[in-house]
Design a protein that fits this description.
By secondary structure, this protein is an alpha+beta fold. Helix content is 27%, strand content 35%. It has helices spanning 15-31, 41-47, 65-80, 158-164; strands at 5-11, 49-51, 54-60, 85-92, 98-105, 109-117, 124-126, 133-136, 146-147, 154-155, 167-174. The protein has a seven-stranded antiparallel β-sheet. Strands 7-8 form a two-stranded antiparallel sheet. A hairpin with a 6-residue loop joins β7 (124-126) and β8 (133-136). The protein starts with a strand and ends with a strand. The mean pLDDT is 90. The structure holds zinc ion (ZN). The site of zinc ion (ZN) has 8 residues, from loops.
Length: 176
Amino acid sequence: MGWTSNDLRIEMMNAEAAEAAVEAIKNYAIANASKYEALNMANLMNDLSVDGMAVVLDDSYSMHCAEYLEFVPEICKLVAEIGTFTGSAFMTSGYGDEGNFEFSCDGDTINLKSVYYPMGFCEYLCCEECGEDVVLFEEYEEGKIYICPDCGEEIDLSEAYEEHKPEINEIVIKIK
Ligand SMILES: [Zn+2]
């Protein structure tokens, strides 16, 4: 436990906008440090940078997934005040959970989609009888009957899937 990684890439319309966005995100993080309990401020300040016309956070040890799920929409609202953008983000934590984001802003509206996997997306659904890995979470099809490759049992994975399935959130924020 303890290993966390946050990645982020926001493509802006020019380098000046990217610089301004980095500045705004840093100011937001400083002003809201108490809100993000596990935020490793020094790492975020060091790692957040401008790459051409993009804001970049590359494999930063900054936040746990639950915090990043709140942080990314907040910074999208900030960056929308600066200009239009498209971007994506990725997060993983030492608890085994993982997730990713796709987002964009056209000047009127922010569209943001997050997919959060409480058990991580490389996780397998296993046979209840013998514990064998049966199918990857990402490849699971609802309603399909699976046969365990090891013991040959016909198994219903729907309950296990329901328990650990990804949480998908799509948000549309009007900014004008
Ligand atoms: Zn089995």
